[in-house]
Amino acid sequence: MVLNFTNARKFCTKSSLLKNAVQLTKDKFPNLIRGSYATVDSKDIDYFNKLLGANNFITGEEVKSYNEDWLKSVSGFSKFVLKPKTTEQVSEILKYCYKHNIAICVQGGNTGLVGGSVPVFDEVILSTSAMNNIISFDKLSGVLVCQAGCVLENLMNYVQNEGFIMPFDLGAKGTCQIGGNLATNAGGLRLIKYGSLQGSVLGLQSVLADGQILNCLNTLRKDNTGYHLKHMFIGSEGTLGVITKVAIQCPNTPKYVNVAFIGLKSFNKVLSFFSLTRKQLSGSLSSFELMDSEAIKSVQTNIGLKCPIDDSFEFYVLLELSADNNFINLAIEELLEKALAEEIIVDATVADQPSQIQKIENI
To answer: In angstroms, rounded to a whole number, what is the distance separating the alpha carbons of residues 230 and 236?
Structure first.
C-alpha cells in the first residue's frame, strides 16, 4: 500500500482548523448508537454542584470547548463538565455515576488527534485540569509525584530548576497533561534514549469505574512485590479507570545538548542515516524525528516558521544528542561530514545554544 502524504494531511490544514461548525460525532458516524445510559436531571446537577462547587461544575456556553477535539473534526454535545480537585472527589463522582448509570468521558488537555478525549453523545465530561498540584520531588532519587492534571511543560520547567528533565517531550507540552500522557502511553521525542513511559513511571493512583481507589503510587525504582497493576492503566485510555496521581523517574539534565536539522533526498537515505547515527553515537542519541516536505511546507505556510535549510528536500530529520561531556560537539560534526561524504544527506545545520536549539525545535 502506498501512502499519499499530501492527501493524508488535508485534514490538518489551516482552513480545516478554523471551521466554525464542528460536525457532531453522532452525525459523522451514524452507525454509532448511544448506550442505555441515564440523562442527567436536576437531582444529579444538585449533587455535582454540592460536591464540586459552582466554579468547578461547568454548564452553558463554556462547555463548547470541552466538546470539540483539537482538530475541530468531531464534537459531542455534553451539557456538563466536572472538574474535581482531588482523588476523593473523582471517587465520589464515579461512585455516583456508576450507581445512577450516567456515562462519563474522561478528558485531560484535549490535545489528541483522534477524537478520543471528547464525548460521542451527551456523556458528562470529567476534566482533570483542576488536579494540577506537584506533590513532591525527591532531589536524591529524581522522583516526581504529581496530580494527573499537571501540564507537561510546567513539570518540565519545575524539574529543570532542580537539575533534572522529564524523560519525554511532546509538541503539545504546553497543553497536554501528564495523566493523559500516561493514559495514551505517549512516546514523545526522547523515547530513543529513555524508553517508553512504561519504564519511567514508578507508580500511579487511579479510581475505578465504581469509585474504588487503587493506590499503586510506589516511588521506588526497584519493586519486585507482586503484580505491577500500574502497567494496565498506562495506555488504557480511561477504559479501566481515571488516573489521578503519578510517580515518575526523572533523569539528570545532560550538561551538553546538540541539535542538527538535516535534509535528505529519500526515505531510504533516512534509514541509512539513522543506522549510521546509531552506530556512531548510540550512547548520546536522544531524539531522531522525521518530517517530510509536506510537513515543512505546512509549518511554513500556516505558522510562519522558516525552514533553517533549503525547503526543497523530500525528507528532514531533527537530530538531538545529549551527554555530560562536550565530545558531542565534535562527534556531531564528524557524523555529518561522513554522511555528506557518503551522499546520505544533502544539507544540515547545527545548534548548541539554547536559543538556537529552540528555533530549530519549533519547526
So the answer is: 10
